[in-house]
Amino acid sequence: MWFDYSVIWAAIIAFAVLAYVVLDGFDLGVGILFPFFPERRDRDVMTNSIAPVWDGNETWLVLGGGGLMAVFPVAYATILPALYGPIIAMLLALIFRGVAFEFRWRTHATSRFWDRAFCLGSIVAAFTQGIAVGALVQGITVEDRAFAGGTWDWLSPFSLTTGVAVLVGYTLLGATWLNLKTSGDLQAKAHKLALWSCAAMFVLIGVISIWTPFIHEIYFERWFSWPTAFFSALVPALLLICGYALWHGLKTDKHLQPFLAALGLFLLSFTGLGISFYPYIVPGALTIQEASAPTESLTFLLVGAAVLIPTILAYTGYAYWVFRGKIDPEEGYH
C-alpha cells in the first residue's frame, strides 16, 4: 500500500483536536474574561457573540476523543489512565459551564451565581486542557503497552506551566474575538485585554519552547538534528511573523487581523508539537503504527470520516457565515 492508513488517521485526529482548540478556545476565552466585564449588559453581549456557534465547536472534541478510542485503542487505553484527573475535571467543567450558559438567561435572581459558574467552568476547562497537553509532552510511563505510572504523574511544574499558557492563550482568543464582534466600550476594553494577553502569551511560549527540548532526548534530537531542525527553526520564525501581525493589527485598530493572527499562533504551536511528537503518538513509548487498530478497521472508519468531516465543516462554515459581522447590543443573536 502506497499510503499508511494509521498516519492518515493520526492527521485526521490532529486536525479535529486543532479545530476544537481554535474554535472552542475563543468561546472559553469569553467566559474567562467575565470578571473584567462586571455589567450584566456587557456579559449578555459577550455570550450572544458565541451563542450561535459554541455548541457546534465542541463537536470536534467528540470527534477527536471518539476517533482516538476507535482508531488508536492502545494509545487511548494508555493516555486516559495517565490523565484521569485533568480529563475528568475538564469534562465536569464543560458540563457545568454549559448548564450555567443556559441558566444565566432564565433567571435574574441568581444570574450572578451562574455568571460565576460560567467563568469558573471556562477557567477550569482551559487550565486542565493545558495540563493534559503538558503531561503528554513530559511523557507517560508505559510497560507492555499499558500505563505503568502513578496517579499524580500528570502534576508537575511543566504541566502547570502549560496549563497557564493555554489559559492565557484562550484569553487572547476570547479578547480578539470580542474585539472582532463587538463595538463601543466593550470592544475598547477587549482591545486592551488583547494587548496584555498577547504579551503574556509570547512570554509563556518562550518559556515552554526553551524548556521542552530538555524534557526528553527525543525532543532535543528532533529540534536540533538535521533535517527536522529546519522545521523546528521555521516554526519560531513564523510565530514571530504572526506575533507582529497580531500586535500591528491591535495597534492600528484592525478587528479581523488580530483574531486571525491569534489563531495562527495556536496553529503554529500545534505544528511545533506535531514535529516534536512524530512518529510517536505517546512520546517515547508508542508510535502511530504500534498503537493503531487493524487496517480493516481503519479503512471502514475512514469511509465514515470522509462523509462526516465535510458535513461538519459545511455546517460550521455556514453558521459562521450567517452570523458574521458585529453584534447588535440591543438584539444580538440570542
Main pleated-sheet profile: 2 strands, antiparallel
Low-confidence stretches: none
Main structural class: mainly alpha
End-to-end CA span: 51 Å
Our count of domains comes out at 1
Number of beta strands: 4
The number of helical segments is 14
CATH level 1 class label: Mainly Alpha
Shape: globular
Helix percent band: over 70%
Structure description:
By secondary structure, the protein is an all-alpha fold. The protein has a single domain, classed as Formate dehydrogenase/DMSO reductase fold. The protein has 14 helices and four strands. The protein has a two-stranded antiparallel ribbon. The chain has a two-stranded antiparallel ribbon with strand order 3-4. Strand 1 (142-143) and strand 2 (146-147) form a beta hairpin. The termini are far apart. The model has no long low-confidence stretch (mean pLDDT 86).
Itemize the secondary structure elements and their pairings.
Blueprint: H1 5-32, H2 40-50, H3 54-57, H4 59-71, H5 73-82, H6 84-106, H7 111-138, E1 142-143, E2 146-147, H8 157-181, H9 184-211, H10 217-224, H11 228-251, H12 256-277, E3 280-282, E4 286-287, H13 288-291, H14 295-322
Antiparallel strand pairs: 1-2, 3-4
Helix pairs in contact: 1-4, 1-7, 1-8, 1-12, 4-5, 6-7, 7-8, 8-9, 8-12, 9-11, 11-12
Give a quick rundown of the structure.
The chain is mainly α and 334 residues long. Helix content is 77%, strand content 3%.
Keywords:
mainly alpha, 14 helices, 4 strands, two-stranded antiparallel ribbon, Formate dehydrogenase/DMSO reductase fold
